[in-house]
Amino acid sequence: MGQMKNRWIALYVENEVGVLAKVSGLFSAKSYNLQSLTVGTTEHEDISRMTIGVASDDVTFEQIKKQLNSMVEVIKVMDLTNVPVHMKEVLFAKIKKIGPEEKEEVFRIAKVFDIQPIDIGEDSVLLESTLTERRNDELVKILRSSFKHIDVVRGGAVAMEGISTSCR
Question: In sequence order, which residues have a C-beta less than 8 Å from that of residue 57 and are 6 or more positions away?
């Protein structure tokens, strides 16, 4: 088997009931593990765009693209793996059971990462981040090493091909 690598695909699909289930079903039927899957509408109400992250080798990735291309509901498949893209991921982190000094530390971390506290309680802070997956990984690592009680929820990444070559 070849080298496993993180890869990204964008799909334009018909905006119909069951399309998401068919696409995700293709991955589960072939035992491909989805790392990220987001779906959103486009400027056309009858077309949705999916951004899919998967770890696979070259051969498996080619099979995935061919199988997606053969689906009737799929309009277009784009391999974003080696394309300049702008990619962001939504992350919420709730830091709980903290005192005033720990709150100040949360605010310092938020400032370093240029993210915002969006809700504050007596003993907790909720942060919202729309950074890259790598930066969100770094944020979570620091939060987990600094605080005992945190909840993290991450949405999948969304991506758009860049206009220039200085993206990602």
Answer: 1, 2, 3, 4, 5
Task: Indicate the residue type of 30.
Answer: K
Could you tell me the pTM of the whole model?
A: 0.79
Task: Output the CATH code of domain 86-161.
Answer: 3.30.70.1150
pLDDT computed for residue 76 by the predictor:
95
Any idea where the domains of the chain sit in the sequence? 5-82, 86-161
Assess contact for 7 and 79: CB atoms under 8 A.
yes
Domain with residues 5-82, CATH architecture: 2-Layer Sandwich (3.30)
Instruction: Classify residue 45 as exposed, middle or buried by CB count within 10 Å of its CB (0-12, 13-18, 19+).
Output: exposed
